């Protein structure tokens, strides 16, 4: 079982890297630095023929239909009428055209890695034994439980939220680690990914607080004991603070991942830059 699980883990890391290398749009720019920096941008998944020819344009559209024809280069796309134009990735098609990118490959792989790596952990915690992978991730889960969740939220409340925090922690961890693999892409270097997680976190903060304290008591307790004249002002300040916390997490994770990649790509660009200057 341990060998099969290790093979599954290796496959879940290798397959999205292979798919990203084979089906992602090829980046090209006027100089090596811009070409490298374009790897920070999610690459649309295109067909193998389009990827081989470096396709980077929108899908062809049948006249009068508003839908991409059979020669569309996108590997996976669908139209969402009425969606915000900011998400439109193919302006040649009527409506908002959403196109799958290489980031989705690694997000799906991260979800599957969580399921595979932790599939034997419940049995290990209940009955002991288990393979090496189960014991390893059981130790990681116990550390997150004791040092990060119970120490802050307490045992009773922390036990209720532990599955959410474990899922989020290892989902982020696997996405970050797969960005270090050759041909890998770091999904958390996209503001859309970190923004979606920030929205989920904000919803958990407000929803969990209202469930724990009550719908009215949560908003009432948002403001500490202050004179009545200051209460409206403090409520606005605390409300802004409540919104700013997940926003700050969104920007920090996005900036850390993007900044780290930019430093590495800058050093790689210097290699090609000095090579082009040599006689």
Brief synopsis:
The chain is an all-alpha fold and 279 residues long. The protein contains 10 helices and 2 strands; from the N terminus they run αααββααααααα. It has helices spanning 2-23, 32-37, 48-52, 102-117, 121-127, 132-153, 155-178, 191-213, 215-220, 231-277, and strands at 77-80, 96-99.
Offer a few descriptive terms.
279 residues
Order of helix and strand elements from N to C terminus: HHHEEHHHHHHH
Terminal-residue CA separation: 57 Å
| Number of beta-strand segments | 2
- How much of the sequence lies in strands comes to under 5%
**What is the general shape?**
globular
Stretches where pLDDT falls below 50 for ≥5 residues? 56-70
Radius of gyration: 23 Å
Supply the number of helical segments: 10
Strand order of the largest sheet: 1-2
Q: What structural category characterises the helix and strand content? A: mainly alpha
Largest sheet: 2 strands, antiparallel
Average pLDDT score = 82
Question: What do you see in this structure?
Answer:
The protein is mainly α. Helix content is 64%, strand content 3%. It is built from 10 helices and 2 strands, in the order αααββααααααα. The protein has helices at 2-23, 32-37, 48-52, 102-117, 121-127, 132-153, 155-178, 191-213, 215-220, 231-277; strands at residues 77-80, 96-99. Strands 1-2 form a two-stranded antiparallel ribbon. α6 (132-153) packs across α7 (155-178). The N and C termini lie far apart (57 Å). The model is unreliable at 56-70 (pLDDT under 50).
């Amino acid at each position: 079982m341990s060998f099969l699980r290790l093979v599954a883990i290796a496959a879940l890391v290798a397959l999205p890297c292979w798919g990203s290398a084979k089906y992602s749009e090829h980046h090209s720019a006027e100089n090596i630095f811009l070409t490298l920096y374009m790897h920070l941008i999610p690459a649309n998944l295109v067909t193998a023929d389009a990827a081989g020819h470096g396709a980077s344009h929108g899908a062809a559209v049948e006249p009068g239909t508003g839908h991409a024809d059979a020669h569309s280069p996108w590997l996976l796309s669908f139209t969402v009428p009425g969606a915000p134009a900011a998400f439109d990735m193919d302006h040649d098609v009527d409506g908002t055209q959403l196109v799958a990118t290489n980031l989705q490959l690694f997000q799906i792989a991260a979800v599957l890695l969580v399921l595979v790596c932790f599939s034997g952990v419940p049995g290990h915690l209940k009955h002991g034994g288990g393979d090496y992978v189960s014991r390893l991730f059981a130790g990681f889960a116990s550390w997150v439980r004791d040092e990060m969740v119970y120490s802050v939220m307490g045992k009773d409340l922390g036990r209720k939220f532990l599955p959410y925090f474990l899922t989020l922690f290892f989902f982020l961890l696997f996405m970050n680690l797969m960005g270090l693999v050759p041909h890998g892409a770091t999904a958390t270097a996209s503001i859309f990914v970190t923004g979606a997680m920030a929205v989920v976190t904000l919803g958990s903060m407000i929803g969990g607080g209202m469930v724990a304290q009550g719908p009215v008591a949560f908003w009432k307790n948002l403001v500490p004991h202050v004179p009545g004249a200051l209460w409206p002002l403090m409520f606005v300040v605390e409300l802004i603070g409540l919104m700013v916390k997940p926003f700050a997490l969104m920007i920090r994770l996005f900036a850390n991942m993007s900044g780290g990649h930019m430093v590495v790509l800058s050093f790689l660009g210097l290699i090609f830059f000095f090579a082009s200057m040599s006689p």
